[in-house]
């Protein structure tokens, strides 16, 4: 398993975290290449179904990142998202998903350093959790 | 046809004999209720059951079944070609099935085995299975097999009938297949005196206990359209929550959906129980839904069982009276009540 | 609680004849022991079929969304809280409703009784003085009523309706010092692996009939996510992963809306304790946001609002 690299789906809000990723890129900052970015209008747009869909399709980790509280382009989208994902994360862990698979962060479009650092943290945490075991469907387990 | 007697102490031995030559399925208490499952040990068999929560139809028509698999790999010459998923069709025995549930298979055959089309999975499973039924000495209050064309001792769809006589079982062969199975058995005794009479008495008392709970003769005469438009459907449908409990527990509900599931570069074609209670059941690709209201869906289920089917095949209703839907409908919609309403709404010629 | 029957009939008669409402939603006596059927009364001649006893566990609020007419409805504590949720979610207007509040002593768990009787079948049931007498063909047995309640009723702390226009009886004493979350804590003490297995075992018997979803007053979406096909979020077979996805998302979808009325568990034909999922959400919402569902129409549901200082323990 030494050459195993996790696949991580990152839902980044268009106005902050995606900009942060962009800046990290143009600034030539290094961060692990395990992240597959999906740009969303707002972290509040991310439906819990998206997160489960990512896991079902084989993601080892999911990362959702939006603007800092108070800085949402839509004023309060990330504040709703915060409640939504707190409950989601708790329920996922309660039902047996290992801690370290699901990550949330607030990263502004100026925080390229924070983006690169958080990406490293996320990848490290998912690597520690190992390849995903749950929610992946490789074949219907039926008659 | 031949008869044998097996005392209760000897039954496990007999079951083990059968397990040596067949895969034996029987009622097993799993958690809160009985269900038909493959016997690993003869001791798992529990014939002191009233009936299983789920009907044994899943033994022939599983809830979800992989029919075909395919690959989508580029360059693979088999890409996109459906290949049948291999199944286990070795001979098997379903032991302890209730006569009503066995009779249900005969009704289901209408759907799966026609002159034009034969469902290969259903047919092969039917052919490889011997049905050893257990007569109902003590039917439930929700049972109404005698009103639905079957009965507690109905042998019409069994190969062998077992009758519990207290100390032991009377085995009666019904078909050639059953005769053969019994012929191969060692350990049966000759039938003690009075056993046949005792079985007949049990049959009579069970039938008397059930009585005839409704009479659908007037429905036969009634025009379909008039019943379709009858006002009582409004009242029947109100409490329905449109879940699939009745259809999924029913031994005669055979409808299924077919889905293709793809996992990256491979996939499979699966069939899955479907229910006429679900709006999706009739939703057209174009967005139109001919049964878009709860009333239409509820009406469909009862009309299909009690009117369309009897009209089409002239061989009784598409219900065997097992009473599962009556017992487990979360809102207590009772098909017996609906049958009475359908019959009463008819003005019969005197 | 049988005394309610008379009160309900009297109120239904009065409301219909005074043209205060168009219909009355209550129960009629079931055709099998320990079951009653939700019943819609449209005219005075049907009123005498209305009925009430300890087997009215189905949540009648389920029949309200999008009704255009004026409705009188019998509501236990949990039903009334679900009515509050409907009002908050604009599924019905308060002006349309005339709520007959039914202070509740807890509803009877039919399956528990049938299991206790071990195969014997009750044909007649009599409730009196905190006991339930079950009479079958050749037996008679008396059980303590308090030992036969639905799981959710045994730990209910809102037995009195929270919103009503008239009461069918005196308010009952609410249960106190109830430990609502012992089962949640039991799971919380497990490792991730054990938890996954625990829930896998829990939902293993599922046949995807959706009775839990459909019995729930909160599940009124025109198209449920399980029925969506573009994209298809979840497969339809009884594959473990699909069944898990369904139960997980169903539970999550009622977060901050579930009143723990128990209709889902009551409806499940294979006896899955689906509340084990929703109880965790209820506990979190109470602990994190101090919210209890369905107690007031003035407060927005917890996922429809926020506070700037909401806890964010694991946000980077």
Structure commentary:
The complex is a heterotrimer of chains A (143), B (350) and C (316). By secondary structure, chain A is of the alpha/beta class. Chain A is built from four helices and four strands, in the order E-H-E-H-E-H-E-H. Chain A has a four-stranded parallel sheet, with helices on both faces. The mean pLDDT of chain A is 94. Chain B has 350 residues and is an alpha/beta fold. In chain B, the strands form two sheets. Chain B has a seven-stranded mixed sheet, sandwiched between helices. A four-stranded antiparallel sheet of chain B has the order 5-4-11-10, with no helix packed on it. The two termini of chain B are 44 Å apart. Chain C folds into three domains: 126 residues, no CATH class; 39 residues, no CATH class; 131 residues, no CATH class. In chain C, helix 8 packs parallel to helix 10. Chain C starts with a helix and ends in a 27-residue tail after the last helix. At the A-C interface, helix 2, helix 3 and strand 4 of A face helix 5, helix 6, helix 8 and helix 10 of C.
Provide a compact summary of the structure:
Chain A has 143 residues and is of the alpha/beta class. Chain A has helices at residues 17-26, 48-56, 77-94, 112-129, and strands at 8-13, 35-40, 61-66, 102-106.
Shape of chain C: globular
- Beta-strand residue fraction of chain B: 15-25%
| DSSP, total strands of chain B | 11
Strand content of chain C: 5-15%
Q: What is the tally of helical segments of chain C?
A: 10
* H-E order of chain C: HEEEEHEHEEEHEHHHHHH
Radius of gyration of chain C: 20 Å
Shape of chain B: globular
Count of strand segments of chain C:
9
Relative helix content of chain B: 25-40%
What is the average of the pLDDT values of chain B?
Answer: 94
Domain count of chain B: the total is 2
- Structural class of the helices, strands and pairings of chain B? alpha/beta
Low-confidence stretches of chain B: none
Residue windows where pLDDT falls under 50 for at least 5 positions of chain C? none
Ends distance of chain C: 54 Å
- Characterize the main sheet of chain B: 7 strands, mixed
Query: What is the helix/strand order of chain B?
Result: EHEEEEEHHEEEHHHHHHEEHHH
